[in-house]
User: Fold these one by one.
Assistant:
Number 1:
Amino acid sequence: QFTLKESGPTQVKPSQTLTLTCSVSGFSLSSQGVGVGWFRQPPGKALEWLALIYWDDDKRYTPSLKSRLTVTEDTSKNQVVLTMTNMEPVDTGTYYCARLYGASDNWYDPWGQGTLVTVSP
Amino acid sequence: QSVLTQPPSVSGAPGQRVTISCTGTSSNFGAGYDVHWYQQLPGAAPKLLMYNNNRRPSGVPDRFSGSRSGTSASLAITGLQPADEADYYCQSYDTGLRGSVFGGGTKLTVL
């Protein structure tokens, strides 16, 4: 059974850097074909894909946020870390991580429970 | 503005059939990439409902079915139940963005 769980601060101030950790169990981040994606969902709004990291350390970012995002993995801890710089109130929302499936037609399953991040002074 | 287009809401009475559409472009569905669907119950994380257009993960009842043709896709739910009341999202891969894209979500109300 695969599980993922997000952790990090519940509140950050504008201009600060957000660091979120996705702890996975039931699978290894270093296994061929494995990937973990990050997503966010502002309150009452749609899901948005943010970043993806593969088992071979290949990384992808959504173009509109690429300059602010960094995704890394610590295979020894089975954790994936997402950092987002220069946080603004519009970045408020629930952040999720999920396991990637599919070589090109990527889909995600399962998802973590999500962590709500509020950006306010 | 989401890359994939979904109706904001649909509704149906218990036992009825509803469909949720998802319209893409030449850089996702039109490029041959499949559609995947997620169900998000109120206050919960998204859950994979359908992958590769019409494949159901283990545990998803066959009341749910999916299809894709050209730049359009749809999710059908038959025998509507109150427990189906949720937000539904379509997702695909986009060659222009080189990443995953989602629809804006459709809120299903069971009357």
Number 2:
Amino acid sequence: EPEVTQTPSHQVTQMGQEVILRCVPISNHLYFYWYRQILGQKVEFLVSFYNNEISEKSEIFDDQFSVERPDGSNFTLKIRSTKLEDSAMYFCASNVAGAYNEQFFGPGTRLTVL
Amino acid sequence: GNSVTQMEGPVTLSEEAFLTINCTYTATGYPSLFWYVQYPGEGLQLLLKATKADDKGSNKGFEATYRKETTSFHLEKGSVQVSDSAVYFCALSVSFYGQNFVFGPGTRLSVLP
């Protein structure tokens, strides 16, 4: 069964450093998403991406964040200058075109900012 | 705005007990409703969904009915197992193009043998 994959599973970085989190969505999916989950808290929407552009973003997704689909398979989230409060689990998700379809989530990348 | 409220956890039950996790929502428009489950150390997995009023989603013995009149989507299971121990998230989706999900805070379920 096809699945969303994410790398790395755990990333440790120093405050102020740039990090890139990588995701490979399911191959025939057209919509891509990033969410984050701070430890012990709820899952929060960051951004959605369709047709090579951001379609929606939350207030969390400020100028420090960017997303890119550099090729036909990868979908990346970049944090330019990490802060301590960026420490969280980051989930990538994807789904097919059409309203109200379930999203398929990857296993997550745990980002720890020291 | 759109929001999801879930009952506070953690919920601790004995094996074979009946489970209810309450979920209510506020939404602009007509949402689709979902339950996702997160097992320890893993990502989110769709458990079940319902896309219109009175729809019942079901999977692995879990059920939830979309109640528009009470804006609720309570999760139930008649007989829980130890393997059901996880965090359960109620979620809604109202946006077509972005389809960003709004998640509830999650309810941690522990089932004891």
